[in-house]
Specification:
The chain is of the alpha+beta class and 161 residues long. The chain contains seven helices and four strands, in the order βαβαααααββα. The chain has a four-stranded mixed β-sheet, sandwiched between helices.
Amino acid sequence: MEIDAYIDFQCPFCKQFELMARPTLEKLVADRLCTLIYHPVNFLDAVSTTGYSTRSAAASGAAADYDMFPEYAYALFANQPPEGGPGLTDGQLVELGEAVGITDPGFAEAIRRGRYLLWPPYVTERAVERGVAGTPSVFVQNIPIAARPGPILAAVQVALA
């Protein structure tokens, strides 16, 4: 069973979702009841002076190369800058990776060279085609669900029944 979560690392509601739903989602994954797929979008680039939604999503793609996406995504939300500002610098994005244990120099290089900068617009385009109009948006088995632990857990239980 798949759970799809559409998130924007600059979105304060996504931060609330991550902090509130993370334990439930981690348990569902650990119990092998679902596969959790995050889709980092760049809806809030227009309110950032440096395209932070795209840059942070691209950095999360680089973290995924080192099997550290969940840890890095959590660190991005825990260190979320105010909406509407420049966001974290590329250097700070690298430092967050180091703080969660990504020590390979390829991670920093991927961020500095913008290796994944084309990925977030692609993910966003696919999200819009799916009907996602805001973040966070959650789907359980392709059915939209309120982005809260209770409704997600209930939808998983229904799907398993």
